[in-house]
UniProtKB/TrEMBL annotation:
Domain HAT C-terminal dimerisation: 284-340
Protein name: Uncharacterized protein LOC110770982
Transmembrane segments: none
The organism of origin for this protein: Prunus avium
One Pfam family matching this protein: Dimer_Tnp_hAT
Amino acid sequence: MLRDQLQKDITEALEKDTFPTGRGLNQETCLKRPGDTRWNSHYGTLLSIISMFKSVVKVLKLIIEDGSTDNLGEANRSLRGIQYFEFVFHLFFMRSILGATNDLSQALQRKDQDIGNAMTLVKVCKEQLQHMRENAFEALLDQVSSFCGKHDILVPNMDDAYVAQWRSHRRAPIITHLHHYRVDIFIQIIEWQLAELNHRFNEENTELLLCLTCLSPDDSFIAFDKQKVLRFAEFYPQDFNPRDLLALEDQLQIYINHMRTMTDFSQLKGIGSLARKLVEKGLHRTYNYVYLLLTLALTLPVATASVERAFSAMNIVKGPLRNRMGDQWLSDSLLVYIEKYVFACIDNETVMLRFQNMKTRRGQL
């Protein structure tokens, strides 16, 4: 219904010449289903709601007028909710918040993370949020008011007293709408976001990750920095005592000269591929301190998005119908579900043949 309504609205707008036309414009779209842990999917959902707001309202009205569906009550609540100024304010505000953090969110979810660029994005994201806190409220309020005017949504006087619908008028503190939207929502949420980023990426964590990038073999070890590698080792005093640090310092110069003269190491990408190649060539014993650093680097929980997705997948795989499965069966099922793109390359005939050859069976598959 939403797709059909959007198509009608676009057709009417094109007939009235109120929509720009051209190659790539006015393509068919629909509301996105938000993912469980991927914030960029929520960002895409907000963008879709804003661009399709008129069509969404019309579809909800059609559902209410029809009155024959089980979703009548939900449609009534949704229609009342989205036609309030407060909903539109939250809609545009969260679009700004997620827009500022979207590039960082996607960078941290990539398996082939460039940690140096990710740390740069963290810094840029913090600066952008701080700039929003100090300068962006008036522009946001104008944007929200303009949107409400186009869609016949009442815009409250910012100087009038604000009382939340769920609170008693007698006990509620006397504040204005401007104070509520600016201080209680806008500033507070941005400060929460900044506090979370500062907690996740404090100075020590950031320094650790930036030192980690110096071990990368990309572009013939262009990022290698001896002093930063030594600083990285200092973060692990239980693995590197003062004597080991001195030995590592002597080993590093020989290691980097050796690596840059070997063609096998010139095209490597990522610390994981470097560790594998060192083992393959037997150099992990020669450069034992460097290899220890690589193994420590590989155990850092940088890619937490993959862990979150695994837990989300667990809720799907181990559902009510399979709540008694053992750990091994659950692990095997999760492996197939999470790495579905790998297993999609394996045809059913190969799987059946493997299953048939495991032991003697009564029938041939």
